[in-house]
Amino acid sequence: MKYRKLLLLFLFVASFTTATAQDRPSMPEDLKQELVNFQQESKERLKLTPEQEEPFREISTRYFREFREVKKSDIRVTEKFRKVKDIQTRKDAEMKALLTEEQYATYLVIQQERRDRMQQKR
Fold it and tell me: Based on C-alpha coordinates, what's the Rg of the chain?
């Protein structure tokens, strides 16, 4: 009887884990780490309040995935540039609504630093 309960519990947990994992598209480990590093650095530099942390994480993750999809796509470079610019504009608007004026100014500085680092990598 005890083993039956354990087996049922195991099957429940396994099915829940599988269902949850299917909800999120998989992301390579290096990209996950890049996203986590960005979110942690931003959290510290922006001095996010506890109420801002979860929305900030959600916005960052959602747009990170959009950027990644455009990067992987087989469209022309000019079209990619246009799409990336559109995504960045939408992300900035959401961040501006979430952050204070001071935090948003810091956010823009962080974004510029990231762009500069990316330019140096090329």
Answer: 19
Q: Please spell the DSSP secondary structure of 77-109, one letter per residue.
A: HHHHHHHHHHHHHHHHHHHHHHS-HHHHHHHHH
d(CA 108, CA 104): 6
Taking the chain (122 residues) in runs of 10, the rounded mean pLDDT of each run is 43 41 59 78 90 93 92 92 95 96 95 87 72
CA-to-CA distance for 51 and 86, rounded, in angstroms? 27
Could you report the per-residue pLDDT of 30-54, keeping only the tens digit for each? 767 877 887 888 888 999 999 999 9
**CA gap 83, 24 in Å, rounded:** 23
Residues near 42 by beta carbon (within 8 Å), at least 6 away in sequence:
48, 56, 60, 107, 110
* pLDDT for residue 10: 44
